[in-house]
Amino acid sequence: MLPVLFLAHGSPMIAIEDSPYGDFLDRLGQSLGTPRAVIIFSAHWESAIQAVSEVNAYETIYDFGGFPPELYRISYPARGDLDLSHGIEKLLADAGVPFRAEKDRGLDHGAWTLLKRVYPQADVPVIEMSVNAALAPSQQMAVGRALASLREDVLIVGSGVTVHNFGLLSARGDQQVQQAVRQFEDWLEKQLIEWNVDALLHYEVMAPYAHLAVPPQAREHFAPLFYVLGAVEQPQSVAILHKSWLWQVMANTAYQFS
Question: What is the spatial distance between Cα 190 and Cα 255, in angstroms, rounded to a whole number?
Fold first, then answer.
């Protein structure tokens, strides 16, 4: 049974820059081994109905601007797995989850910047899946729960950011702001380790400074966590694989549920 991961994708520069988080991602693939495939829920693919990629070979999507030219020269030629895509669709149908197949979309930077570091040879098939930030966390978990049986040989990953608020960048030097977002991340870590699902489902009213860490306009970056939590069911262990801060106020956190 493979673990389930939540990985922060932070800045697109993680694909090429030398950083502690990039170094961690380089080592992660070696520790995980080679799964049959990766299913990745990306915060940068939003849809009202659950979308499942049905792609033989992905193009690399550069859905960002203002970065160095070398970042736009990166290609991640991942392939898909149509049999697995169809299997996912059957599991969703059996669970009563509406879905649609996406046959043309490439990999967005919520997926390829991470995978470029974890599986740099692009030799592991990828199924990208959308998120819907308008769903209740319990509904997001239901999507992940439908896929739990695939963990035998498939790695399920949520790609987002637990503390993601561009509005805080202008105050990133403010120690009170830094302390506030760290209190939120510490609360989240505690609830995950103790597997306090009820608190997690009600994080907006129970977590300190939730309105700063997960503002309404950035819920899509928190949503992937709930999708993968659904695939976990009852973990035997919860590990914080990496914890650092981007620009002092954005979390580069990686969680593993085994």
Answer: 12
AA letter at 190:
K
Q: Please report the pLDDT score of residue 255 as a whole number.
A: 98
Complete domains list, the chain, with CATH: 4-257 (3.40.830.10)
CA distances from 247 to 111, 123, 164, 166 (A): 21, 32, 11, 10
Q: Which strand ranges, in their side-by-side order, compose the sheet holding 126-131?
A: 99-102, 50-53, 126-131, 37-46, 154-160, 4-8, 250-257, 238-246
The 3-state DSSP class for residue 76 equals coil
The rounded distance, in Å, linking the Cα atoms of 155 and 114 is 14
User: pLDDT tens-digit profile of 39-84?
Assistant: 999 999 999 999 999 999 999 999 999 999 999 999 999 999 999 9
Other CB atoms within 10 Å distance of the CB of residue 100: 14
Nearest to 183 by CA among 205, 204, 208: 208
